[in-house]
Amino acid sequence: MRNALLSTGLKVKTAAMILVGVAVLGFLLFYRSPDLSAEGKKTVIRLWHPWGGTMMEAFKSGADRFAASHPEIGCKLLYVPNDIASSQKFYTAVIGNCAPEVMFVDGTQVAEWAEKKLLTPLDDLLVEAGIDPKKLEKEFFPPCWRQCVYRGKIYAITFCADVNFCFFWNKDALRKAIDDGQIPPGTIDPERAPRTIAELDRYNAAVTRVRNTGAGEQIERIGLVPWGVYGSANSIFTWGWAFGGEFFDDQRFRITANDPKIVAALDWMCQYARKYNYEHIATLQSTFGAAEQSPFILGKQVMQLFHVSGLKDLDKYAPNLRYGMAPIPRVEGVNGDGSWVGGWTLAIPSGVPDVEKRRAALKFILWSCASPEGTSLEIRTSQNFPAWKDSPFFQEAAKDPRLSVYMRILENCRHQRPVMPVQAFYMDQLNRAVDRAVRGEKTPKEALDEATRKTQERLDELLAESGGAR
Amino acid sequence: MKANRERIAGLLFIAPFLAGFGIFTIYPVLASLYYSFCKYDILSPPTFAGMSNYRALLTDELFLQGLWNTMSFTFASVPLCMLVALVLAFLLNLKLRGQALYRTIFFLPSIVPVIASSVLWLWLLNGDCGLINQALRPLLVKLNFLLGTHLEPPGWLTHPACAKPALILMSTWGVGGSMILYLAALGDVPKQLYEAADIDGATTWRKTWHITIPMISPVLFFTLIMGLIGSFQYFSQPMVMWPNGSPGDSGLFYAQYLFQNAFNYLRMGYASAQAWILFVVIVVTTMLVFRSTRRFVHYGGGA
After folding, report:
1. What pTM does this model have?
2. Quick one: closest CA in B to A84, which residue?
3. How far apart (Å, rounded) are the C-alpha atoms in residues A3 and A6?
4. Residues of B near A (CB-CB distance < 8 A)?
5. Which tens digit of pLDDT belongs to each residue from B251-285?
6. DSSP states of chain B as a string?
7. For a surface tag, which of A141, A386, B147, B249 has the fewest beta carbons within 10 Å of its beta carbon?
């Protein structure tokens, strides 16, 4: 009798547990978080974005405003990190036919993703919406537009123009060095930026100070470290273009990293490594990573190239530092300087079968990238320069003396990273080439020849795989 | 009838595990073997390519360099870590006041997360203001003065020749786990053996060599095997220390290059081939170690 009771109790317990289990499972399967901007809308588009923190708040307010002015369209935002190594979620979503309708794509990814048929060409959609692509192109800064066009088709619209880079120099450190008698007065003017590479070399020679510690030499102060521009690959892009080189022939699909002008740029970089000892510079640069310890703020590195986000660090860690800002020094005889743009673009992934959703997605993209409201400073914060020339953002930014320097650089900018697949591979090869050359393990020519050969092999292999060989 | 029911019930109970094991372990392992013979970029179906991935790997300098880096790191760091752990275990086995406190202190570093300890070592190894070079510099100044040499403190993180020694040095920081195992094994050596040796007039050294080491040899063997396998898969530390590539690729490890190929370049087939080569290397090394150390491992239970 007791046993029977016990087993009845057990049965009740088991049944209860199964019920709870089913309830939890059902909740997990069918629960959808309420999204106000999507409620009661006819067409709902999903949007994957890479923003966190204050940027996300700003972007969210942008999406809400879009939804307010477009009653028929709802937006569902989802934070999905997207860097080179973590875009698998996107790949699997496209293959699994559940890709979002709008995706943030980094400028460097556009060509590769287009080649792999992950993105929808926008040309026909634009025409259908009554927009002339040729006319739209003219409204954008040329390199920002170019980074979205692959094999003659438009695959994305640039959302923000990353202006790479602005030249900064630490006026306080220069002034102090002159006052301390370390730089002979009259050699350099601390209020004026070097305008040419030759002048930059002269500044460097004047400001660099090496101290003998008794156990090797230590650099106390240096001017500019040419390979210290956000990694070696970005450095060689910057100086390669400054010297008039080109990294990719998009007509013949040839890698041209060993362009004699790029070799000359790397050779110039190597001169610094030889003159001031690469190891000693590397030691100086290997600070603890935090921005407050950056050699520029400490006055150990007097000149540096910064992305616009550098302003935030300077405001936070060195609010009283006096520094100047100018375009990157030019190479005499070369048209334009080495500045270039990157930045996020917006695209429609492939596998969005619903025409209405594609139309809505395009509306959102155009509103975000090429409308006065979508490109306003409020939504963008000062870090996301629009790529659309007519944006009211620029009237606001022009009032800020520092942002206006970046604006000027953007207006004159002529370059974007090569629009080709295997970008990540190319950048790793360039990193390696610069590293080998400045260490003196290879000549600039040998190092860049190798990068060219390997990347070309990889590019040819990929094009053969996708059946699109040229 | 009852046995049958029990069998069914048993299978049902382990069914969730079996399903998980099959879907998340067996299938990926077999799939990666197949992909290693294919060109596969995740986005389009794999196409069979025979041995081409394996052939390409043989001429891939970075693959060979990664293999060499990993091998040399393993063969330096595993014995060194065992030695350090053993010496610490011997010391901490002495009956002292505060023994438990010392044991805790020496074990602590191994519960520090890998990322945190790597960042900590970045600071210690910093060539300009790191603690290690700050301590070395005054010594070198004196030495240079006395000998007329021009010695400099090493650029631990920036010079190709120093990167691996730096990582090896760093790996000794994590010996706490082995140390605890050795301590447990030391506590398990029968007292009678030492007493018998004392009666025969054995010295401490002879007791250590002929009693202690053989009696803890199964544990030594276990940590050797686990250490080898762990080192072959070494990944996180160099990734944290050189996110943009190590000096002259001297800190490029096998697993890192595999990851790059798989996820940065989407060469899944190529990466699968690498994974299988690593698997074979680990199996062969483990087998060699098993064979060569069999004579030295003494199991008290007579196994």
Report:
1. 0.88
2. B264
3. 5
4. 39, 41-44, 47, 122-123, 126-128, 136-137, 140-141, 144-145, 150-153, 155, 157-160, 244-245, 247-249, 259-260, 263-265
5. 999 999 999 999 888 899 999 999 999 999 999 99
6. -HHHHHHHHHHHHHHHHHHHHIIIIIHHHHHHHHHTTEE--SSS--EE-TTHHHHHHHT-HHHHHHHHHHHHHHHHHHHHHHHHHHHHHHHHTS--TTHHHHHHHHHGGGGS-HHHHHHHHHHHH-TTT-HHHHHHHHHHHHHHHHH--------TTTSHHHHHHHHHHHHGGGTHHHHHHHHHHHHTS-HHHHHHHHHTT--HHHHIIIIIHHHHHHHHHHHHHHHHHHHHT--HHHHHH-TT--GGGTT--HHHHHHIIIIIS--HHHHHHHHHHHHHHHHHHHHHHHHHHGGG---TT--
7. B147
- The answer to whether A97 and A326 are in contact (CB under 8 A) is no
Cβ-count burial B221-230 (b if 16+ within 10 Å, e if not): bebbbebbeb
Closest CA relative to residue A217, chosen from B121, B140, B135: B140
A152: number of CA atoms within 13 Å, CB side?
Answer: 1
The token pair that represents A203 in the structure block: 């500044």
- For residue A153, give both structure tokens: 């088709």
With vertex at residue A172, the alpha carbon angle to CA A412 and CA A177, rounded to the nearest 5 degrees, is 115
Cβ partners under 8 Å of residue B285, min gap 6: B228, B232
Q: How many CB pairs under 8 A join A and B?
A: 92
Q: Is A287 in the B-facing interface, judged by CB distances under 8 Å?
A: yes
| CB-CB under 8 Å, A282 with B127 | yes
Contacts B131 to A, Cβ<8 Å: none
Peptide bond into B279 cis (omega under 30): no
Burial of B43 (C-beta count, 10 Å sphere; 0-12/13-18/19+):
middle
ipTM: 0.84
Nearest CB to A424: which of B41, B141, B265?
B265
Say which residues have a Cβ less than 8 Å from residue A368's Cβ, sequence separation at least 6.
A62, A66, A159, A346, A374, A375
Q: What is the pLDDT of residues B119-171, one digit of tens each?
A: 899 889 988 888 998 899 889 988 888 888 888 888 888 899 999 999 999 99
Assigned token pair, A302: 């007097």
SS3 content of chain A, % helix, strand, coil (to 5): 50, 15, 35
Tokens of A461: 């292999």
- What's CA B267's distance to the chain center, in Å? 27
Q: Kindly list the residues from chain A whose CB atom is less than 8 angstroms away from the CB atom of residue B136.
A: 215
Span of A19-23, A111-115, A141-145 with lowest mean pLDDT? A19-23
